[in-house]
Amino acid sequence: MLLEVDNITVAFGKVSAVKGISINVRDGSIVTIIGANGAGKSTTLRAISGLEKLREGQIRFAGEVISDLPPDKIVGRGIAHVPEGRRVFPDLTVEENLRTGAFLRKDLDQAEADLRSVFESFPRLSERLGKNAKTLSGGEQQMLAIGRALMAKPKLLLMDEPSMGLAPVVVDEIAVIIRKICAGGVPVVLVEQNAQLALRLADYAYVLETGRVALEGDPDALLDDDHVRAAYLGV
Amino acid sequence: MVELLAQTGLNAIYAAAYMSLVAVGLVLVFGVLGVINFAHGELFMIGAYVVVAVFADFQMPYVLAAAAALVFVGAVGVLMERAMFAPLRENPLGGLVASIGFLLICQALVSVQFGVRMEHVPPVTQEVIVISEKVRLPVHRLTVILASIALLSSLWIFLRKSKFGWALRASSQDREAASLQGISISRISIIAMFIGGALAGIAGALTAPLISVNPHMGHSVIVAAFIVIIVGGVGSLEGAVVASIAYAFVHTVITTFWDGVIADIVGLALMLAVLIVKPTGLFGTADRA
Question: pTM, whole model, 2 decimals?
Fold first, then answer.
């Protein structure tokens, strides 16, 4: 198992946002976490990246405990995180944003090659190389955020609501990109409000409700589940 | 009249030069650490006292004293980061209060060591460039101007061209997103505090032979620096430099033709006007306000 989230609890003051969640990610797979607002999806992802401290439980990556490391060390272990709301650096250029993603890398030649391949995957970014990130459209910023995460050469990619606020055409593009990333050997943990999209992409799915795993299993099975259909697919 | 204006212009450029050094450091620290360092003026003051100790008392070369101020005050900045700002990382208001405490400690320590009297730093050079009968530029003032330009250009190149420069800018734009790129917030905060301290220290060291050095000299500098930062736009280094220049010109012109107190009032009034018309400052972005 590449990533093992083992019965974690995260609390803000007296309120627990995540109450004993366990999630496993195996190599070569897309795992999705769906659920309503406030179900604890983002908090789980942020806990994996070290942005939230655990009250209980443990997170292991490639067999090693990472839940006591600061975020920058976790990036060093090979987990990249595309945060909710994209969070590109607004006053850095597209190129500087991407190079910042490679901050920890020592293999500079390989990083240059990866930069070129990001531009090949996202031709619209290469057109805007020298522009500040804040001048990009929402879809372009999302691609920049994904490209920036890929520049870290991750072993696992966490994505928090990549479809948020994007036009349907762009969402389709993002879906293709996520498939490509996984096919390229980087497993993905995808947090989504857009359950339709997430279940279509994923190999395995978790449904969170009020900080707990309510359901988990094969996405196709969940697509047929009456509760999931009523609560998350609106059918 | 033309000569008076020319002389005032030269004075303003000098004031803008050292003011920029102080303001840019303060902006950098606020951007990266998210803390308003009220003791930034005291870092300027300590820089001046390093010159008092090394150059005036121990009679070492002035260049050595200035270099010592740069390194020593940079180190004081790092000490502040480790001792105060790091433990209060999630509590910017606590950081601000701690910095006010640090300010008082600095003033007290310097008073105990050097006394509260004004220190006289002997002139480094008496030479004056005579442009015309009434337009004169003391060589030391020219040194301050050139050194400031050199330091700010180096900083600019560092921020644009180096990996750690990008990391500093990225951290000041979005600290959490920066940590998700593998940038260590601790390390980048140390770097920011070193640079901020070093710039304030060298500004104090450069101006020490030209102004009255006393334990409370940081006060006027920090007030001016705050005005400059608010006018320029909190978080914008370019804005801080441009606003320093604008403020220095306005302040110097009014001081020359009317009065220093009126100049202070006009400075504050300008800040208010900018806050009313464009609350993010002239160069600031909305989410930084």
Answer: 0.90
